[in-house]
Structures are given as structure tokens and as C-alpha cells.
Amino acid sequence: MSLKITLNLRRFNEKLRNIFNMEASVAHHITDDYTEVYRSLPLKLQLAYGVGHVLNDVCASMWFTYLLVFFHLVLEFSNWQTGFMLLVGQIADALATPFVGYHSDESDGFCFWRYGRRKIWHLVGVICVLGTFPFIFAPCFGCEYSSRSAQMFYYCMFIVIFQFGWAAVQISHLSLIPELTPNEHDRTKLTAIRYCFTVISNVLVYIITWIVLHMNDGETNKIGPSDGPKFQHVVWSILALGVVCSIIFHVYVKEWDNDVSQNVRGSQLRTSVRDLLLSCRVYQPCLKSKHYLIPLGSCGVHVIQTVRKPNSGFHPPVSPRNSRNARQRSSIGSSGHVPR
Length: 340
Known about the structure:
By secondary structure, this protein is mainly α. The chain folds into two domains: 43-261, MFS general substrate transporter like domains (Growth Hormone, Chain: A); 290-335, no CATH class. It contains 13 helices and two strands. The protein has helices spanning 2-32, 43-50, 54-74, 79-104, 117-136, 148-175, 177-180, 184-213, 228-252, 258-265, 273-278, 284-288, 320-335, and strands at residues 291-295, 302-306. Helix 4 (79-104) packs parallel to helix 6 (148-175). The protein is elongated, with a radius of gyration of 34 Å. Mean pLDDT is 75; it is low at 23-35, 259-271 and 283-314. It holds the Pfam family MFS_2.
């Protein structure tokens, strides 16, 4: 009896030992896996980030809506001169955007970059926008009676600097999203809040412009050279709003240090193009097996059909048009003349 009890105890101890060993191996496997820890962004930080692009939004609304009106009706430039200056601004923006995007990714390690490599470009862009945009919607300072070509050069100079600053604010503000959080849901929230403030900024610009331009004391409703001061009032009003929002952004939004952000996000491997295509069912037959390109009649539409290898005795199906051509070629080879 005692021998049976001893054997049962030994078996029970072995089972317990196996269970503990299995739990230890599972726990070791879990601890070896990569775990990502992050904290959700507070609402105050999300709103502070959203207002960081308000200055760009109000200036863009004035640029695309009222620039042609101001240059053509207030400053009395011709059609091609007004369009040329707008084109210069768009070309400058196209050149400045990749330049800012490339250099904002670099970190030289200077003390100046401790403020944040994204935020420093944002600050430079804000300074450029504030220093040039009021001169665009204003008479030519000191050259009111100069030639049109000299005035165009004057405005193009400020337009190029403004577009560089606008691109710096836009690129740095967008690229700051992955620096703030590794969570995709928080990134989506930041993008949605940013777009929400963009819409609000556009509506505010239209409301302010409508109010200011209708303060004409019973005069004519047509826009002319006498409305120049009104456009300046609109510009200074929206710039004041943009300055307040930019200050809120730089005070409350803290950019992660480059090393810290890499430790938080961890190493993320890029997905190859082949793996990306293999994840789609449409492309799986094309990448995993042999295929043929088969024309469907004379409509010019082609489909990819998976078949076996040609040496296995199976041939791809032939359309009726191709079969008729094959019969014609065989008849030519046998009779020597072309059938009608």
C-alpha cells in the first residue's frame, strides 16, 4: 500500500514539474517577444497640434481666393502679369517642399536642434510667412510709381520667401505626427483634428473678408484701388489669429528626442513589394504559378488565366479569332494561296 502511494506521489510530482516547466517556457517566450508600450495623447496636446497649421490655412485661403482679385482689381496688374506672379509662387512651393522634407529628416546633433528638428523648421516657416505675407497684399513700398516689371520683381521676391515658409510649416507639421505617437489611432485623430481646423480657418477667412469688404459706407460694391486698405485689415486680422495659434502649438507640443522616439517605436521592418502583392488575392495566381495572357475576342481586353506548364500536355485555350487565324495559316501552307 505504501509502495502504491509512493509511486502515485512520484507521478504527481512529475506532472507538476512538467506543468511548471511548460509555463516557464511560455513565459520566457512571451518575454522574448517585442512589446510596444506607449501612452495615449491627451486632448490638450491633440488640440495644440491641430492649431499649429492655422497660420498656413488662413494664408492659403487668402492666396488662392483673393490674390488674383487683389493684383488685378486693386493693384491693376494685367491678366498675364497677375497669372505670372501666381505661377512663380506655385513653382517656388514645388521646389521648396522636397527641399524642406529632405533636410527636416536630418539631425546634425547641434544644440540648436534640441528644440526639435520638426519644430525648428516650423518656427522658421512661421517667421518667413509673417515677414512676407503682409507685403504681398499691400502696395509696392517705395516703388509705387516704378515700372510694372520692377513691381513684379518686388512682389515675386516676397512670394518666393513666403512659399518657402509655407512649405516649411506644412512639411514639418505633417511629419511631426509619427514623432508624437506610434499609435495609428492617435495619428488618425491628429490628422482629423488638423483637417477640422483647416476647414474652420477657411470659413473664418471668408467671414472676415465679407465683413470688412462690406464696410463701404454706401459706396459702390465693386472692388477697386480704394479697397487696398481693407485687404490689409483682413490680412492683419488673420495673421493675428495665426500668431496666437502658432504660439499655442510651440508652447504645448513637445517633440520627442530622436533617440527616445526610436526606442519607443522600436524597429519596424518594411514590407517588400512581393509580400504586399501576395497579400492581395488578385495577384496571387500571377506570382505563384505560370500564367498566360489570353485575348478575349477583338475588344482588346486581356485577362490572366492560370494553366499548367506547356510540357505537361495541356495547352492554354485559344479564342475563336486565333483558331480561325491558325486554320488560315494551315490552309496557306497546304494549298499555297491565300483563301478569300
